[in-house]
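Design job #97: recover the sequence.
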C-alpha cells in the first residue's frame, strides 16, 4: 500500500498542487492524467523520493518494494541486457554481486562460508534461481530476442533500450510499480503484451500515459492532476471522461430535477459497466465500475477544443484511385481504390513511407511514377506532420487564420474559430512564430476545418496534442461524413476511427476492411 498524506509542492511561490491525500492499494492500476505541465511526472518523483514535497509525506508499507521505469537510457551501458533487467531488483542484484565476489576469494574462510550461506538463503527467498528465466520471459514478451540477451546495452538501438528498461521495471514482481509513458516506442504487439501483463499483475500500478487505448485497457482508477489538486476517480479513461462530462452538463443545467440527474447517472453507470469493450478492467480485475456510487462522479473543469470537420458537399461514389504509384527509394507499385465511407489507417514500420504517399496525394510532391485520381466530387485537405513552413510569417493568430477563410471575414468570425480551439482573449493576438508544437497543431486543424473538404489526409495529427485535444479530434474524425486517410501512433484513434487497414512498407503488404484490433489479432495469430 502507498499513501500520500497532505502533500503540497510549491516552486517559487507557485503551488503546483496542495492538500493531496490519496491511497493506492493492491490489485489496482491508477492512470495519472493531466494537461501538459500540470505536474504528472513531478508527482511520480515525489512518490519515489526524488523530489521532497514542500509539506506532507509519502508512506510506503514496510517490506514493500517500489520499481520505477527509468528514463536514462545510458545508465546501464556497461552491462548486458540480462544483467540490466535483473538490476531492476536492487536487493537481489546486490546479493548476486556479493556472492560472485565471495566465491572468487582465494583465501576462503569460515566467515566467508557463513556469509555465503546467508546470501544463498536470501537468494532462494527472492526466487534468485529463476531470475534469468523470468528476465528472459519479460524480454521475449517485449520483442527482445534471445540473440540480444548477452549483448552489452551500449550496443543496442535506443528503441530496444527502452524495452529492456521496461522489462527491468517489471522484473521481480514489485509491490508498487511506477511507469512513466511505458508505451512510448513500443510496437503494437509489445504494447499488447504489456497490457496483458498489467491486467494480470496483482500488485499496485501507477502509470502516466497519453495512450488512451492503454489507459482504457489497464486502469481501474484515474488520478486526475488538475488546477492544483489531484483527485481519484473509479473507472478507466473513457469512463472518467464520459461521466465527468455528463456531470458537467448536469451542473450547468440548473433546471433539471435532481431525480432525473440521478436516474441518468445510474443508467450511464449500468450501461458502461456492462460494456466489456469500454471497460475491460471491470471483468479482468475487480469489476470496479459495479462499485461506483453517485458521489464518485464529479464534473471536470478541463477544457476541450471543439473539432468538427464539415464538408461543403457530400462526396460521390468515386473517391480515389491509385495505380502503380512509385516513389523512388521509398515505395513502389502501390495500387488501391478508396470507396465511399471508408476511413483508412495506413500502418508502416517507417513513418516516412505514408508521409511520402500523402504528400503525393496532396499534390505537394510531383517526383513519382504511376497515377492517382481523385473523384470529380472530391475536395481533399492535407494535414502534414511537418508544419513549420506555415508558421514562418510574423502574423498574429487572427491574421494567420484569415489566410484560410476564403473570403473577407469579420474578426468576430475568426475569433470564434480560435476560441473553439482554446485560443481566447489575448491569446488570439500572439505571434504564429512563437507557438508551441500543440498550438501549431490546433491551428492546422482550424485550417483543415475551414477548407470544407470531404476527404481528409491526416499525417499523424495527434503529434504534440494533449489527451483533451486527442479525445476531441477522435470524436471529430468519427463524426466526419467524408473519407479519411490517416496515420497515427494513438491506438484508440486507430481502433475507433478506421474501418480499413493498409500496411505500407516497400509496397502494400496488408489491405483489409477491418478495425485496428482485428488487424492486430490477425498478425498476432500468423
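Job complete. Output follows.
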Amino acid at each position: 500500500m502507498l499513501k500520500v498524506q497532505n502533500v503540497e509542492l510549491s516552486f517559487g511561490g507557485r503551488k503546483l498542487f496542495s492538500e493531496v491525500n490519496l491511497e493506492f492499494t493492491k490489485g489496482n492500476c491508477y492512470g495519472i492524467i493531466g494537461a501538459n505541465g500540470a505536474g504528472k511526472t513531478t508527482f511520480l518523483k515525489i512518490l519515489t523520493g526524488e523530489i521532497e514535497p514542500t509539506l506532507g509525506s509519502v508512506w510506503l508499507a514496510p517490506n514493500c518494494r517500489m520499481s520505477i521505469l527509468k528514463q536514462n537510457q545510458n545508465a546501464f551501458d556497461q552491462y548486458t541486457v540480462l544483467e540490466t533487467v535483473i538490476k531492476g531488483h536492487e536487493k537481489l542484484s546486490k546479493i548476486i554481486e556479493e556472492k560472485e565476489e565471495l566465491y572468487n576469494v582465494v583465501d576462503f574462510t569460515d566467515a566467508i562460508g557463513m556469509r555465503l550461506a546467508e546470501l544463498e538463503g536470501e537468494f532462494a527467498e527472492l526466487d534468485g534461481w529463476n531470475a534469468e528465466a523470468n528476465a528472459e520471459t519479460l524480454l521475449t514478451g517485449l520483442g527482445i530476442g534471445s540473440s540480444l540477451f548477452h549483448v552489452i546495452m551500449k550496443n543496442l538501438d535506443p528503441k530496444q533500450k527502452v524495452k529492456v528498461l521496461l522489462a527491468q521495471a517489471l522484473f521481480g514482481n514489485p509491490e508498487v510499480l511506477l511507469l512513466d509513458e511505458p508505451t512510448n516506442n513500443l510496437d503494437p504487439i509489445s504494447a499488447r503484451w504489456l497490457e496483458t501483463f498489467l491486467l494480470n499483475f496483482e500488485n499496485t500500478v501507477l502509470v502516466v500515459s497519453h495512450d488512451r487505448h492503454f489507459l482504457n485497457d489497464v486502469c481501474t482508477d484515474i488520478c486526475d492532476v488538475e488546477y492544483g489538486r489531484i483527485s481519484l476517480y473509479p473507472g478507466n479513461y473513457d469512463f472518467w471522461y464520459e461521466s465527468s462530462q455528463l456531470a458537467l452538463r448536469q451542473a450547468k443545467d440548473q433546471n433539471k430535477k435532481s431525480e432525473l440527474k440521478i436516474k441518468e447517472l445510474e443508467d450511464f453507470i449500468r450501461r458502461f459497466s456492462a460494456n466489456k469493450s469500454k471497460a475491460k478492467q471491470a471483468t479482468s480485475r475487480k469489476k470496479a465500475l459495479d462499485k461506483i456510487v453517485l458521489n464518485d462522479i464529479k464534473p471536470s473543469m478541463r477544457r476541450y477544443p471543439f473539432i468538427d470537420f464539415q464538408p461543403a458537399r457530400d462526396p460521390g461514389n468515386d473517391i480515389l484511385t491509385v495505380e502503380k504509384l512509385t516513389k523512388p527509394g521509398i515505395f513502389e507499385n502501390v495500387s488501391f481504390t478508396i470507396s465511399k465511407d471508408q476511413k483508412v489507417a495506413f500502418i508502416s514500420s517507417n513513418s516516412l513511407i505514408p508521409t511520402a504517399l500523402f504528400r503525393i496525394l496532396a499534390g505537394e510532391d510531383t517526383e513519382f511514377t504511376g497515377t492517382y485520381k481523385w473523384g470529380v466530387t472530391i475536395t481533399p485537405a492535407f494535414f502534414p506532420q511537418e508544419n513549420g513552413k506555415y508558421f514562418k510569417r510574423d502574423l498574429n493568430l487572427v491574421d494567420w487564420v484569415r489566410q484560410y477563410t476564403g473570403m473577407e471575414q469579420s474578426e468576430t468570425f475568426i475569433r470564434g474559430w480560435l476560441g473553439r480551439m482554446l485560443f481566447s482573449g489575448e491569446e488570439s493576438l500572439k505571434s504564429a512564430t512563437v507557438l508551441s508544437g500543440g498550438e501549431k497543431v490546433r491551428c492546422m486543424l482550424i485550417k483543415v476545418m475551414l477548407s470544407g473538404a470531404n476527404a481528409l489526409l491526416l499525417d499523424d495529427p495527434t503529434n504534440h496534442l494533449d489527451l483533451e485535444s486527442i479525445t476531441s479530434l477522435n470524436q471529430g474524425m468519427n463524426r466526419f461524413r467524408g473519407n479519411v486517410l490517416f496515420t497515427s501512433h494513438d491506438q484508440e484513434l486507430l481502433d475507433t476511427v478506421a474501418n480499413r487497414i493498409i500496411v505500407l512498407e516497400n509496397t502494400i503488404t496488408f489491405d483489409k476492411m477491418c478495425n485496428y484490433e482485428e488487424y492486430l489479432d490477425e498478425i498476432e495469430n500468423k
